[in-house]
């Protein structure tokens, strides 16, 4: 459904590529979270799919369309075949909720009769029928995001792409939006969502793809958890593999299995990450023999100046 093959993108003026030889295959009807630190390349990957940016090299195929062959004048038409949801909603402020959704259908040439049939159904799906005549400014953030999703799904896209759709929302509203995306996925739409929200990723247990400095460094196909590669898992596992402590995580059994399958290096205690040691010039190794005399370890005197 979505295919990136060895995609590289470097923005003019940048030293490092935003995407570095990225290959990713998303099957029809998958629900995929794309995670990674700020600057990892998540939005750039999304922009590759919407053709807001074009790669320096590599191939991208979305819904059977090879993006190399989508000419500039056909880009708006191509985008309308996708559902795209943004962090800042991008609603038309002078049009009502109903009109925002209806407009999205007008521009793909749907007849007025079909629009009148479709819009209420979609507003019902996103639970906004009572707000149909309100303007975006009269809605909460979560409601505005639901209008934006309604507008996208009204055209029944096969693929829905969302770049941090819950970034501006509180926890409860975030859960509502994710539930809605799940419902849309259950109806058969392939979904790709970027997020920094650890708990929604962990609670949903879907595929999780992690980007780091423009490269895919992790791809957990099933029951994925939010794990930026450098951070040790915030979980303690007993010698038998039983999870004894999981601070900060709402663990579900599927996640637990995943973690137990990949225990952290030391079973009982997860050490805090240490700062990288300063490089030290390598000394030649002296073979240890009976006669080798080990130098005495000199104890450093604790003074005011060497205590931080
Ligand atoms: N228009 C641009 N011009 C130059 N460099 C850019 C541009 N857009 C992004 N970059 C650079 O590309 C890299 C990836 O940026 P991107 O926006 O894809 O990251 P991100 O993972 O979406 O981050 P965030 O989580 O903060 O949204 C960063 O180093 C960023 O500075
Ligand atoms: Mg981004």
Give a nutshell description of this structure.
28% of the residues lie in helices and 19% in strands. It is α/β, with parallel strands linked by helices. The protein folds into two domains: 2-220, Rossmann fold (3-Layer(aba) Sandwich); 232-274, no CATH class.
Could you explain the architecture of this structure?
- This protein has two domains: 2-220, P-loop containing nucleotide triphosphate hydrolases (Rossmann fold, 3-Layer(aba) Sandwich), CATH 3.40.50.300; 232-274, no CATH class.
- It is built from eight helices and twelve strands.
- The protein has helices spanning 42-50, 75-81, 97-106, 112-125, 141-153, 171-186, 198-204, 253-261, and strands spanning 2-9, 19-26, 31-35, 57-62, 65-66, 83-85, 159-163, 190-194, 207-212, 215-220, 236-237, 243-245.
- Helix 3 crosses helix 4.
- It is globular and about 50 Å long.
- Residues 231-270 and 282-308 have low confidence and may be disordered.
- The site of adenosine-5'-triphosphate has 11 residues, from helix 1.
- Magnesium ion is lined by residues 42-43, 163.
Q: Let me know the largest β-sheet.
A: 6 strands, mixed
**Whole-number radius of gyration?**
25 Å
| General shape | globular
Low-confidence stretches: 231-270, 282-308
The overall strand count is 12
Task: Give the averaged pLDDT, no decimals.
Answer: 82
Q: Bound small molecules, which ones?
A: adenosine-5'-triphosphate, magnesium ion
Element string (H = helix, E = strand): EEEHEEHEHHHEHEHEEEEH
Strand content: 15-25%
Count up the domains. 2
The strand line-up of the biggest sheet is 6-7-8-3-9-10
Helices, by number, come to 8
CATH 4th-level superfamily of the largest domain: P-loop containing nucleotide triphosphate hydrolases
């Amino acid at each position: 459904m979505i295919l990136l093959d060895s995609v590289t993108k470097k923005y003019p003026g940048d030293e490092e590529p935003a995407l570095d030889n990225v290959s990713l295959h998303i099957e029809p009807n998958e629900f995929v979270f794309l995670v990674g630190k700020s600057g990892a390349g998540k939005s750039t990957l999304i922009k590759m799919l919407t053709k807001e940016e074009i790669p320096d090299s590599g191939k991208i195929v979305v819904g059977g369309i090879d993006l190399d062959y989508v000419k500039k004048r056909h880009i708006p038409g191509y985008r309308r075949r996708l559902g795209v949801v943004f962090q800042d909603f991008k609603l038309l402020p002078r049009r009502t909720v109903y009109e925002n959704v209806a407009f999205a259908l007008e521009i793909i040439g749907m007849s007025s009769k079909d629009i009148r049939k479709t819009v209420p159904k979609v507003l019902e799906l996103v639970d906004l029928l009572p707000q149909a005549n309100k303007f975006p400014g009269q809605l909460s953030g979560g409601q505005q995001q639901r209008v934006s999703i309604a507008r996208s799904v009204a055209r029944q896209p096969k693929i829905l792409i969302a770049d941090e759709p819950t970034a501006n929302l509180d926890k409860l509203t975030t859960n509502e939006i994710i539930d809605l995306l799940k419902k849309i996925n259950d109806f058969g739409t392939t979904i790709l969502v970027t997020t920094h929200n650890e708990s929604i990723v962990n609670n949903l247990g879907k595929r999780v793809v992690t980007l780091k400095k423009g490269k895919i460094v992790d791809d957990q196909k099933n029951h994925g958890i939010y794990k930026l590669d450098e951070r040790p898992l915030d979980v303690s596992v007993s010698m038998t593999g039983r999870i004894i402590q999981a601070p900060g995580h709402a663990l579900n059994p599927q996640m637990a299995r995943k973690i137990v399958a990949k225990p952290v290096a030391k079973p009982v205690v997860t050490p805090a990450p240490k700062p990288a040691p300063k490089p030290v010039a390598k000394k030649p190794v002296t073979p240890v023999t009976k006669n080798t005399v080990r130098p005495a370890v000199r104890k450093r005197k604790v003074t005011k100046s060497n205590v931080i």
